[in-house]
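Is this the right way to post structure tokens for a design question? Let me know if I should format differently. Anyway, here goes:
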């Protein structure tokens, strides 16, 4: 139940009347002015529910002109909670209401308002007609407006609260069932094995059985949503991927399992989704609603999968800006358009299809059929968004043309895998689609690549996969051109996406008839490459490979700017919300034969700007021509952003240099990072006796793995072999390698040394080459432990935050400081 906390004495109410008073003193009474006062009041109330007031809300109607309402209250599922129409005191409010209803305006929770009067309709009925010159009556009116829940939303609200709790429970039940059937059901054993081979060929040759099981579970738990919400009951029997999965599901349910009975536990949630979606007439709004449902589903069902693939969907203002910008560049720089024959477009990370759907709206209907059948291409690696994208794009085509045609331009495939050697890719038809895409002269690549850099903790066992060919290309270009020492950030998937897309524009067609050596790449990504130390080589290569580079820096790096100049930066400053708390940028790269020079253009928003302000900037700009660009001239180091930098920095004496084996030309001849343990909670402690107890327990746990690994079955994989118990050990890459090598760890009291854990914070450290991930130069800098404390020596005083290990249960998931 939504309750509006608002009283006549509250500041937003006072400000509303004060502003009306100022307008009255200035004899300003036209609608455009006086409605702004009420708009501010509505925005303040909406914020209490985490809703958004969207001005000039468009209501699209099938085969009819769209309507425009002055404002709509929209929740975080993109559901409209109420509508607002503003008038001035000169308007005949009753006549204006009759006019609006006559042309089809909604009658469900719509507030008609003038400075002196408010009329509220709910569920098709007049429920309130008040004089709102009184603060008390104004507040009562707003309470009635905001606290109303349409009947179809009431069940939805309750269902959402329990959804994420129920999905893991049901998914766990399906896992148990699948494991049982894989031991006893011969038909299912054969079907599952064949399906797993298809998945490994199309998605990842190292795909685990668990991941394949998850695909089956995703399909079973969501197939009803697709068939009912999209009114497409035959989808599961017609889509080339769903057909293969249904074969396995049929085998799974061939003995005693009833799919229908099992899913009855989610019937209330399905019904709520279907009922709520049925209230949405605009398909774009329905798509955004389902995107949000999907994200919530994935977060509840499989956090690891969501994290590995960086599940985050692009806000519509960004999609609109990128598509409009590409259309403009095609027209101005290449004399062509999105709808022209020969302009092949590819979204390599299609998600739920927003970019391609938006492109289809820009293509003239006379050209859409050819484009849809021949020149629109996209890839998706995860099952659920693949399904949603397929149906979104098929529906978009149906809405535009009035005819249904399956979209054959979408492939279930890992885009990065396409740079590797390929065999059969899931099914004959899917393989044919991939081959057709590979042979297409792609001219535009647009999308939102995966954004995450990798697992937070080795105990997650959730690594991003390796791509030998693509990784070699990144190493031979971006890494090779970099002067940085630590180049870990070049492993981020979005960096690989830039490399892959750049190479794809220069790929020769299989028939050798033509070669695409010009085109456009438009990505929205992590903005770290703009000024990152390790991405200097990436910037140098991009500057060499493209004639025009446009970078719209949307900022929003919460981790970096969480408190800057005393101003807190949080979720409201990020364009992706909580899903991506890193800085974000829109980057458009252009390569063309008509250019004789190379230029880089940059525009950065105010770092204090909130999401709404950033979207307003993008909406007002429409495309790249609406942005005030600053031309960037890189220096020799590949630096693009020079603000605050001194040109004479390179003339300073370096403190140390790896290439210098003596102190000549440097202040210090030796330097070291210190000790990087990868398991601070176990190897540091303020109390020597507790450190000894902790480390001996985890050594025993580790040595047990070494002994069991020596007796392992043939073909065992170390990542799957070790036990991920966060209360026993913190695994790291090198520690797993030591298990593989059979290295036994040994405790010695002499390995416990005094250490400076942080500045002014003394602690004890278990200094050991196995349980410290990296010791760097410390064995040389401190070769002996000459002043080793005894067990009875005075303990260091804990005058700062203590490392999280204790004699009971160290926690691997605590914040791990660097030594």
């Amino acid at each position: 139940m939504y309750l509006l906390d608002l009283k006549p004495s509250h500041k937003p109410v006072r400000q509303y009347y004060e502003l009306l008073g100022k307008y009255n003193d200035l004899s300003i009474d036209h609608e455009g002015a006086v409605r702004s006062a009420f708009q501010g009041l509505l925005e303040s109330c909406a914020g209490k529910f985490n809703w958004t007031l969207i001005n000039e809300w468009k209501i699209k109607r099938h085969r009819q002109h769209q309507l425009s309402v002055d404002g709509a209250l929209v929740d975080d599922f993109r559901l409209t909670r109420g509508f607002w129409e503003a008038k001035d005191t000169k308007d005949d409010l009753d006549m204006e209401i009759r006019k609006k209803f006559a042309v089809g305006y909604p009658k469900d929770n719509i507030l008609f308002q003038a400075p002196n009067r408010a009329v509220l309709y709910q569920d098709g009925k007049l429920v309130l007609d008040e004089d709102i010159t009184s603060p008390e009556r104004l507040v009562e009116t707003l309470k009635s407006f905001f606290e109303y829940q349409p009947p179809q939303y009431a069940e939805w609200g309750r269902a959402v609260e329990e959804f994420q709790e129920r999905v893991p429970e049901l998914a766990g039940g399906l896992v148990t069932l699948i494991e049982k059937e894989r031991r006893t059901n011969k038909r299912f054993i054969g079907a599952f094995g064949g399906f797993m081979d298809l998945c490994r060929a199309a998605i990842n040759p190292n795909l685990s059985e668990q991941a394949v099981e998850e695909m089956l579970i995703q399909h079973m738990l969501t197939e009803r949503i697709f068939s009912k919400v999209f009114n497409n009951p035959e989808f599961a029997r017609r889509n080339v991927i769903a057909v293969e999965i249904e074969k396995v599901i049929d085998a799974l349910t061939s003995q005693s399992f009833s799919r229908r009975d099992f899913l009855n536990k989610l019937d209330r949630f399905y019904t709520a989704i279907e009922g709520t979606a049925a209230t949405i007439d605009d398909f774009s709004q329905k798509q955004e609603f389902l995107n949000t449902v999907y994200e919530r589903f994935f977060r509840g069902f499989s956090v690891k999968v969501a994290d590995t693939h960086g599940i985050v969907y692009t806000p519509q203002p960004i999609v609109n800006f990128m598509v409009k910008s590409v259309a403009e560049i095609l027209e101005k720089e290449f004399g062509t358009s999105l709808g022209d024959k020969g302009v092949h477009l590819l979204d390599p990370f299609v998600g739920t299809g927003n970019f391609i759907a938006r492109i289809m709206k820009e293509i003239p209907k006379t050209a859409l059929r050819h484009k849809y059948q021949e020149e629109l291409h996209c890839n998706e690696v995860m099952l659920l968004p693949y399904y949603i994208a397929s149906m979104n794009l098929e529906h978009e085509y149906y809405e535009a043309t009035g005819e249904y045609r399956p979209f054959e331009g979408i492939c279930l495939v890992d885009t990065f895998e396409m740079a590797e050697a390929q065999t059969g890719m899931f099914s004959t038809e899917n393989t044919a689609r991939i081959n057709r895409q590979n042979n297409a002269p792609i001219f535009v690549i647009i999308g939102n690549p995966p954004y995450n850099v990798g697992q937070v903790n080795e105990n997650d066992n959730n690594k991003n996969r390796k791509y030998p060919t693509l990784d070699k290309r990144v190493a031979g270009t971006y890494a090779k051109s970099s002067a940085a020492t630590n180049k870990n950030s070049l492993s981020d998937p979005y960096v690989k996406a830039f490399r892959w897309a750049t190479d794809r524009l220069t790929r020769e067609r299989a028939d050798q008839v033509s070669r695409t050596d010009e085109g456009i790449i438009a990505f929205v990504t992590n903005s770290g490459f703009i000024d990152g130390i390790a991405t200097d080589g990436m910037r140098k290569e991009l500057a060499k490979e493209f004639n025009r580079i446009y970078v719209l820096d949307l900022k929003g790096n919460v981790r970096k700017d969480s408190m800057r100049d005393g101003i807190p930066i949080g979720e409201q400053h990020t364009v992706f919300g909580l899903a991506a708390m890193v800085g974000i940028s829109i980057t458009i790269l252009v390569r063309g034969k008509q250019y004789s020079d190379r230029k880089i253009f940059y525009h950065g928003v105010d770092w204090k700007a909130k999401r709404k302000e950033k979207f307003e900037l993008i909406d007002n700009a429409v495309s790249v021509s609406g942005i005030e660009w600053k031309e960037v001239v890189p220096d020799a180091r590949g630096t693009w952003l020079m603000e605050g930098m001194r040109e004479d920095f390179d003339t300073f004496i370096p403190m140390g240099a790896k290439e210098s084996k003596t102190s000549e030309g440097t202040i210090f001849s030796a330097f070291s990072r210190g000790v990087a343990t990868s398991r601070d909670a176990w190897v540091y402690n303020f109390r020597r006796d507790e450190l000894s107890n902790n480390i001996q327990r985890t050594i025993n746990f580790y040595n047990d793995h070494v002994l069991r690994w020596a007796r392992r079955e043939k073909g065992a994989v170390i990542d799957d072999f070790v036990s991920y118990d966060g209360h026993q050990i913190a695994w790291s890459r090198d520690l797993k390698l030591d298990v593989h090598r059979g290295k036994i760890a040994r405790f010695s009291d002499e390995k416990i040394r005094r250490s400076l854990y942080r500045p002014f914070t003394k602690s004890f450290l278990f200094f050991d080459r196995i349980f410290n991930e990296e010791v760097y130069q410390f064995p040389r800098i401190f070769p002996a432990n000459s002043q080793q404390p005894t067990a009875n020596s005075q303990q260091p005083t804990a005058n700062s935050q203590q490392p999280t290990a204790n004699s009971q249960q160290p926690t691997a998931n605590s914040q791990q400081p660097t030594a």
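Format looks fine. Someone answered above. Worth noting: The first strand starts at residue 52 and ends at 61. The first helix runs from residue 11 to 25.
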